[in-house]
Amino acid sequence: TEQAEEKMEEEEAMLEKYRQERQEEMFPDEVDTPRDVPARIRFQKFRGLKSFRTSPWDPKENLPRDYAQIFQFQDFSRTKKHVFRQLEKEETDGAQVGWYVTVHLCNVPVSVLESFEQKQEPLVLFTLLPYEQKMSVLNLLVRRHPGYSEPVKSKEDVIVHCGFRRFRASPLYSQHTSADKHKLEKFFHADTAVVASIYAPITFPPASVLLFKQESDGAQNLLATGSLLSVNPNRLVVKRVVLSGHPFKIFS
């Protein structure tokens, strides 16, 4: 049947992911030299580095087009302190934590109310701090949840809970180091914490993070937990490749 064929294809795809993850663990970053395309063309976007740790790299070089539409702070830590300082000054005698209050919303269509009544979902109310309506690059420090065992590749679609927000994203996973360059991880390994970089609305830390993987049947399984590390589009995530192959010709 059609369902059986779809299930078979899903199982084959999952087995292939397991194989790729195992291959990456055994031979990290190794790529076979292609036979049908010259290596100089296949890897023309790569460059040779004497040292991954110390060789210079311009963070403004060859930026994605989407970077023209995102917001970048000159000094994120300073801006955060200023925003919270202003918030403390503007605080008034409002509702305190633990109080039950009644909120009146004006000009809300009846269809919105009916939709919430049918879904029986809670209505979450929140206010935004300055800059939190803008988009930027969020770097999330996350660790795999022990209850999730399936392989997870970079750029795979996940559901992100960051602070009070929930949205879909396709994270790039990279090593969590103090260097100026961070190696891209093809897979989200279970034995170490990694940094997940995503396009998302700006959020000021501290903010807790949950990552969920949505399965084909609609179920959402907890993939990882962590916290918001930084809001920094200049964080360099570099893909490293180690070429492997056989000698084509040996000159004496």
Automatic annotation (TrEMBL):
It comes from Micrurus spixii (Amazon coral snake). One of its GO terms (molecular function) is GTPase activity. GO terms for biological process: endonucleolytic cleavage of tricistronic rRNA transcript (SSU-rRNA, 5.8S rRNA, LSU-rRNA); maturation of SSU-rRNA from tricistronic rRNA transcript (SSU-rRNA, 5.8S rRNA, LSU-rRNA). It holds the Pfam family RIBIOP_C. Required during maturation of the 40S ribosomal subunit in the nucleolus. This is Pre-rRNA-processing protein TSR1 homolog. The lineage of its organism: Eukaryota, Metazoa, Chordata, Craniata, Vertebrata. One of its GO terms (cellular component) is preribosome, small subunit precursor. InterPro entries: Bms1/Tsr1 (IPR039761), BMS1_TSR1_C (IPR007034). Residues 30-251 form the Ribosome biogenesis protein BMS1/TSR1 C-terminal domain.
